[in-house]
Specification:
single chain; mainly alpha; 1 helix
Length: 43
Amino acid sequence: MADGYLEKHHEEYEARKAAWLRKQKHLPKAKKRQLERPENETL
């Protein structure tokens, strides 16, 4: 009984993990934004 229970939950975990990994691959990567510097830096 316990073996079937563990196997079922492990399969469900693997399915959730695969779906999460597929979702992560399609997300756009965060780009580092550069601050715009004014031409005249004397303040």
